[in-house]
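can u do me a favor
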């Protein structure tokens, strides 16, 4: 999930001795080629002698630091800037270049990656150095809303800056490994031009040219992760009440996950088609099974809030007319919003004393169903 709340900024950077690139400090033997920008006199690093493109990283919290380390590990000359000098010390020791000013940092490389706490901080810092960003690509890995991303992309376009909004979906622990997911959206040309550098971070996926897509995916995937984790935490508590070790249970869960992800793919097709076969059990059948989970949890003395939420979703979906539909129909009920579902439930509720409705309910209660999930 996104590690945005750990994206810290800081206070200032110290002066540094002159190096191959003016106004930056670096330890390490790599040689670089570059060109001098006319308005600042600062050399812009473009490629090393082995062809690796240079990158600048602005913001050295946990995520920013790991991103800079991933670029260094892949052989990219990496300029770093943070407002607290100590934040860059370890990276400089690993071979990074420390910029003395923010302008030096943004003009040092054709690709500038910012990892800051929020969009107002991004706007406050980059506003004064907008001219230095012209002609470069800005990758913004700061958490925010789709509106934030759209606004910042507009600002970038006004200043001649290629823009990609993005999010690190695997936290900090996987950065630099192939399984680390980074979602990006915005300029296709910008992504294509720096595909190699971004691949240094992990699985960099371009979602489309709308810059708002990245924060939408960021938020949606955050919710997806927490939905899965909430179910896992409840399950750990339930088996723990029976004396099962959490790690032993987690090993079984891991083996079960390919089936769960296959359901997600199959159910996505059902949602797209608007047809919900009951191959994996109906909403009514899963509602009855959820009652069993609730009762078992209560009997074991653990909390029931998680299965109560699941049961509520199933009840509302049944009230929306999908009791005998497959469970993917829950997505349609959620999409309608609470007010719409409530109105549907009121409209479809049988009047008190409606014997036909009562007979139908009695008939349904006798039917056998099978839960295949």
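np, heres the sequence
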């Amino acid at each position: 999930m996104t590690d945005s709340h750990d994206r810290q900024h800081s206070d200032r950077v110290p002066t540094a001795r002159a190096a191959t690139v003016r106004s930056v400090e670096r330890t390490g033997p790599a040689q670089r080629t570059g060109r001098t920008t006319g308005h600042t006199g600062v050399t812009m690093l473009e490629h090393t002698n082995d062809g690796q493109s240079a990158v600048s990283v602005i913001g050295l919290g946990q995520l920013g630091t790991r991103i800079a380390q991933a670029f260094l590990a892949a052989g990219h000359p990496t300029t770093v800037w943070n407002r607290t000098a100590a934040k860059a010390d370890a990276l400089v020791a690993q071979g990074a270049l420390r910029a003395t000013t923010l302008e030096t940092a943004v003009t040092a490389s054709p690709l500038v990656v910012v990892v800051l706490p929020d969009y107002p901080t991004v706007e406050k810092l980059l506003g004064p150095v907008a001219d230095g960003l012209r002609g470069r690509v800005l990758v913004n890995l700061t958490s925010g809303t789709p509106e934030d991303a759209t606004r910042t992309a507009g600002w970038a376009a006004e200043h001649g800056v290629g823009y990609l909004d993005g999010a690190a979906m695997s936290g900090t622990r996987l950065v630099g490994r192939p399984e680390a997911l980074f979602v990006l959206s915005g300029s296709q040309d910008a992504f294509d031009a720096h595909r190699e550098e971004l691949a240094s971070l992990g699985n960099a996926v371009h979602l489309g040219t709308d810059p708002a897509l990245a924060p939408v995916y960021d938020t949606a995937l955050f919710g997806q992760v927490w939905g899965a984790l909430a179910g896992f935490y409840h399950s750990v508590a339930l088996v723990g009440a029976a004396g099962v070790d959490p790690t032993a249970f987690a090993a079984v869960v891991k083996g079960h996950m390919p089936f769960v992800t296959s359901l997600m793919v199959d159910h996505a097709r059902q949602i797209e088609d608007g047809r919900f076969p009951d191959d994996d059990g109906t909403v009514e059948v899963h509602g009855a099974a959820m009652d069993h989970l609730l009762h078992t949890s209560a009997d074991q003395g653990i909390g029931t809030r998680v299965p109560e939420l699941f049961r509520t979703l199933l009840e509302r979906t049944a009230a929306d007319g999908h009791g005998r539909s497959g469970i993917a129909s829950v997505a349609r009920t959620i999409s309608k919003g609470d007010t719409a579902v409530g109105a549907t439930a009121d409209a479809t509720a049988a009047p008190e004393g409606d014997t036909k409705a009562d007979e139908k309910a009695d008939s349904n209660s006798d039917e056998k169903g099978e839960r295949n999930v």
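The two ends are 26 Å apart (CA to CA). hope that helps!!
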